[in-house]
Amino acid sequence: MLIAGAGGFALQVLATLHALGQTGGCVFFDDISKENHGPIAENFTILKTVAEAGQFLKEAPSFVLAIGNPRNREQLCQRLEGLGGRAHTLIDPSVRISPYSVSIGEGTCALQDVIIEPGVQIGKGVLLNIRALVTHDCRIGDFSEISPAAVLLGGCQIGEGCMIGAGAVILPRVRIGNFAVIGAGAVVTAD
After folding, report:
1. Distance in angstroms (rounded) separating the CA atoms of residues 52 and 70
2. Residues 143 and 124 sit within 8 Å (Cβ to Cβ)
3. Sequence-separated (6 or more) residues with CB below 8 Å from residue 70
4. Cα–Cα distance measured from residue 167 to residue 132, given in angstroms and rounded to the nearest whole number
5. Angstrom distance (rounded) from CA 124 to CA 81
6. What was the pLDDT predicted at 37?
7. Concatenated DSSP letters of 148-161
8. H or E element at residue 182
């Protein structure tokens, strides 16, 4: 599997793949950073060109989006799909998902201890970071990022490409427009 990214978030993705017993054959793709990637570089191959990524995806088309920025994640997803890749949905084993009326889009990544309650609809390429709580009937648009310990309360709607900061609370039935940024620790009481 190709892990798109090679920074700190990529290590979180790797930890989830490790918990699932799926690290065999993993490679990373980072055509931007010039830095040494520490433990990733010591243990895994890092592909540095689009051509290398394309060649890898011909043999193993699944990829996981391991970058946080919503716009960059969407662009990278489109780029890798253009090379024949398929966005892989990654759910950490500690995630609790209601068995009732939950929809999760392809390429979504739910990390450790996320809780997803009934009636939730999650779009494509969404990042649900550690300990995010998504309560009943919430909707999350494509490529949005829900940061660690953020709380989305009943029936709220998050637009596409949004970034909800760490520990933020979105109150029930509040609507957040496309590409909005909500700061860490914010309590959002109105649309």
Report:
1. 24
2. yes
3. 127, 143, 144, 145, 161, 162, 163, 179
4. 8
5. 13
6. 66
7. TT-EE-TT-EE-TT
8. strand 181-182
